[in-house]
Amino acid sequence: MDFVICFQKRYRMMGKITVADIVKHYFPLVIQQCKNSYKGLEVEDRIEEGLLALIHAIRTYRVQYGCFEEYFLLQFKLIMKQRNKEAWATKRLESFFSLDAPMLGSNESSSHLEFISSVPHDDTIIDVNLFMERLTSTERKIVSLLINNQDLLAISCELGLSVEQVQPLIKQLQRKAIEYLDVDIK
Fold first, then answer.
1. N or C: which end of the chain has fewer CB atoms below 10 A?
2. What are phi and psi of 183, to 5 degrees?
């Protein structure tokens, strides 16, 4: 039964429908939608954002939109997609040498080293030049390619190595970065 009809009948019998009534009715649906999706957020955060999306849908719903549940699910998906995207972006920035971290656009003129130093870890300033000097020439080339948004296949082609040979080099670079930054990863 559609939300509007269901609650209109209840309204006639009991009086005014409150936001709490609607939230209580749709809470299981929020839990169901949050359970196995939007993994960028922790479960509690997913549920919280889902409830906020429900409240947003309640406040912005108009009868001419049709079925409330469909409207709510559309609003829910739009809001959760955005929150999930923001959460993954934050997590990527925490990774020093992530292959999918945001990189400089082709129209930006900053040097590669300025980009790395512009996102310091734990609010500390790192000496990028000192870190780069400690790397082998191959490792410096990999860092340069990663900064220029090259994927694993492009890096392996550029270096004339197989993907299986490049993967350990990137892991080694990550270990060196963690060691250099003195980061305790559990």
1. C
2. -100, 135
Mean pLDDT of 163-186: 76
Do 136 and 90 form a contact (C-beta atoms < 8 A)?
no
pTM: 0.45
Query: Half-sphere exposure (CA, 13 Å, Cβ side) for 90?
Result: 8
Gap between the Cα atoms of 39 and 36, Å rounded = 7
95 three-state secondary structure: coil
- The total number of residues shown for the chain amounts to 186
Contact predicate 128/116, CB 8 Å: yes
Give the separation between CA 164 and CA 106, rounded to whole angstroms. 28
Tell me the pLDDT tens digit for each residue of 57-113.
Answer: 899 888 887 888 988 988 888 888 888 888 877 776 555 555 544 444 444 444 444
Give, as one character, the DSSP assignment of residue 135.
Answer: S
Q: Residues 118-128, buried b or exposed e (16+ Cβ, 10 A)?
A: eeebeeeebeb
